[in-house]
Amino acid sequence: MPSPIPVERFLPRDLSPSIDLRPCSSPLELSRSKPGAFLSRRPAAAPRLPPRLAWCSIDWEQVRVLEPLGSGGFGSVYRATYRGQTVALKKVKRCSKNRLASRQSFWGELNAACLRHPHVVRVLAASACCPGDPGSPGTIIMEYAGNSTLHQRIYGRGPPLEKDCCVRYARHVADGLCFLHRGGVVHLDLKPANVLLAPGDLCKIGDFGCSQRLRDAEDGENPCCTQLRHLGGTYTHRAPELLRGQPVTAKADIYSYAVTVWQMVTRELPYTGDRQCVLYAVVAYDLRPEVGQLFHGTEAGRALGDIVQNCWLPRPEDRPSAEQLLQRLGFFSVPGTLLHLFWLRIEKSPPPGSADSEWLTPSQSQSVLDELIKSDSFLVAIGSFQKALQPTVAMIS
């Protein structure tokens, strides 16, 4: 029986790492190099960015490297200061085995250069060179969102994530995806290790090295890329249509999102065993991680289970969009939070019969409210919040 996966889809392990390898924009493995070593000298003639990115060219006189944060397959990340602001500086490595993939990793990162969203890591500046390393494809300066990732939070020594926390994180990631897809960008490597946990317990999508821009559809259908530029990403989270060599669409991110949410709830790794056997089973037999009892104990767990199973359906057109996910999660989680804030504003105390530990302090509530106002899910949930508010107003009056 012929394989459903084209032969060229079986990648060398250095181009399709397992999930325990850390990507360079979400570092977990400390680098051994000395801070500032690659800024020892400035290049004589620096390559220039294209005109559309001229606004974000790096002013090297304003760069000060502080310490290494980590490294991965395509780059090293340092904590630094730029124009007096603490930032994350990423140096893209030369890849002797695949120089094209290394260059495309740099340009993929710049797909997020013009994007501004609370749940997407912001690119502040970039340069198509790296002082001290003339063979490097470039350097990128990003906002510093800390060095903690969702991968660390899930698989660390701390307690498992509560279901309500899973819903909140899932909403953050869906909000970021919704924004990216509206802007015509598909991430193509969404996984817990590429989601940073910023101060305030906010999830931010990072590491755009595998990302692509979607072409506008001329026939009214979903925009897509006609072919892959390179075969990066993580095989455990890669959508089956990409393994078949089909065009890239935003629904590939939705599949990866499902596996990521599954990891949040179960605290397990998606697959074990031989990689190529897993790839074959995912494509030919619709193999998916098991949705067990952890998804059935609470209302939040059941909602997440339904979302996961809908998001990793085999046919891309059957999966929900990021906007539909945001509506589902907004309806499920935001009205309760807004109702909570309403009580704190009116009564300055929890509603009768509720546990004090389940309610935020006024200062915490303000932080949550500020976050919601910045998020698309705030507007999505207004209608359902009005319905939820009616019995509360009646009870107060």
UniProtKB/TrEMBL annotation:
Reaction catalysis annotation: L-seryl-[protein] + ATP = O-phospho-L-seryl-[protein] + ADP + H(+); L-threonyl-[protein] + ATP = O-phospho-L-threonyl-[protein] + ADP + H(+)
Pfam families: Pkinase
UniProt keyword list: ATP-binding, Kinase, Nucleotide-binding, Serine/threonine-protein kinase, Transferase
Broad enzyme group: transferase
Sequence ranges assigned to domain Protein kinase in this UniProt record: 63-332
This enzyme's EC code(s): 2.7.11.1
Residue ranges that the Swiss-Prot or TrEMBL entry lists as coiled coil: none
GO molecular function: ATP binding; protein serine/threonine kinase activity
Record-listed ATP binding positions: 90
Secretion signal span: none
SMART domains: S_TKc
Family, as annotated: Belongs to the protein kinase superfamily.
PANTHER family in alphabetical order: SERINE/THREONINE-PROTEIN KINASE TNNI3K-RELATED, V-MOS MOLONEY MURINE SARCOMA VIRAL ONCO HOMOLOG
Protein name: non-specific serine/threonine protein kinase
Protein's organism: Eleutherodactylus coqui
